[in-house]
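Example record

One chain of 304 residues, shown exactly as stored in the release files.
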Amino acid sequence: MFGFFSNSIESLKKTVAKTTQALVGNVVDTVSEEEEFSEFVLEDMEDLLISADLGVNYAAELVDKLRNQTKIKPSVVKNYLKEEFSKTLNSAGSNQLSYKDNELNIYFITGVNGAGKTTLIGKLAYKFKQEGKKVLVAAADTFRAAAEEQLDIWSKRAGAEIVRHDKADPASVVYEAIQKAKSENIDVILVDTAGRLQNKFNLMEELSKIKAVIDKQAPQALRECILVLDANTGQNGLQQAKVFKESVNLTSVALTKLDGSAKGAIIIAIAKELSLPVKLIGVGEQMTDLKEFNSNDFIEALFD
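Predicted structure tokens for this chain:
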């Protein structure tokens, strides 16, 4: 949908440079000069993959495959990792953000406070506006102080309208947004939601009420539920994703603050552990610094 990655492989390489070193460079430097995969070498490799935030289970699986074979030699470990990572990312599903022309498209934005939800909503609203879409923001995070004010600022920067009511029931905000969208032929509703992981029951109740409103008021609307994660949280981000997936029907992940992070392997870990594709990445502070993620480009940037 968005032509974000045109002519930008070189830029992507710079964005993931620290992840490349942590995930690929360190392993290749340590392993590739060895003649065989001794137990000592395999243990070193597993430790390096875990420290790069690939995840304990996946790191063990990759090493076990090498332990139980004789064809792959340490000199080609880089090719082995590239092939395995590619298969994992591709198996998680399409990276393309869903969108239907001539329909109402509703994007649920979830994530813990501080992950970058508000900023992502502003940037996503801006991208849709640049494509000529009519965009409405629903400020349904009525729990966190100042959330609505921050969202209002970002919505105005993006040129999008906003529905907000301080301290209102989140479901009522979404209801009003849908009614407004119907009457004004809005293309896109971006719904901000609370990120209260410390009270999982309340979070589930709140999200289920919002879902019920959408089911009744906009049953034909396209829906996408995007979990926003801060790339720097590494494996903690994976744990957050597991909790949110238990609470709501997640369809994809947006990874913020990827620029400068050495923990970008979380993209692969999420694909492996939760079968969720990353669809958006944040690579800077500017309104245009939201990119549509592409698995093949990411792999090429990592292994070039």
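Notes: Strands lie at 105-110, 135-139, 161-163, 188-192, 222-230, 252-256, 278-282, 290-292.
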